[in-house]
Amino acid sequence: MEVLVLADIHDMWAHLNKMLHLAKSMDGVIFLGDLMKFRKFTQESVDDMTRLKEECNWMVGVPGNGTLPKVREFFDDLGINLHGRGRIVEDLGFFGVGGVQETAKTIIGIRDFYRTNDTSSLSPNKRALETLSEFGIMHQNGQFVVEDWSDTDLTALDRYSSPFENSEEAIYKILSTGFQQIGDAHSKILISHVPPYESGLVPDLGIGVSTGSKSITKFIESNPLSLALSGHYHMHHEFTIGTAICVVMPAVANGFYGVLSVDTSSWEMRTEICKF
Asked: What is the set of domains in the chain, with CATH numbers?
């Protein structure tokens, strides 16, 4: 089985013809969220995603963090939304969660991490340093210094919130609901927009720290899964949690797609990252 994996289209349809060809030639399509630009609703993306769905044998997906309610309704109408749902395709069970965890709490967690851990080995690029400075984390004389913020400063972090967020507690419950619906599947794949959380320093990521969901990680640690697919980071990144392989897919908007290959006799899985 070969499955086309797409993430973070963000209204960028320059590669639509190639996507349509791939969707028609493969067994199915997985979409990992952020169909449109942040807080936008565009008819072009509705039409092109509908064409993509019509070309493929089956499609499953989750909405991203920038998704407005009517985009989530469109996913429901299209019959692909696995947020809090499960679906079995040829003995392969898919279940998922869309959006991200609460952004303000994630930023506070990043501040706490930089305050309490040795981050001297990190060398963030200019963009990452700008992001950290917005969070009150300054790079001075080769060291990171976390500014003292007032309650007013912390409350102001709500300006970074996304249209589609869930608490960590809700994320775990959403995953549990979908997982219960695929109990008979031979192998199980978790699809999410936000990646699972990785503990400790993660130098491959821009700011050196994971901004993933701790509840997704907890769920993977507690349940037998083969694979976890996610997007959101706009870059390719892989790691493991227990025996589960976690693959973060790069963005379609940046010219990338993925292919999931499943040997349905051995149930061995592998992913490949491709350029359009």
From this structure: 2-101+162-275 (3.60.21.10), 103-159 (no CATH)
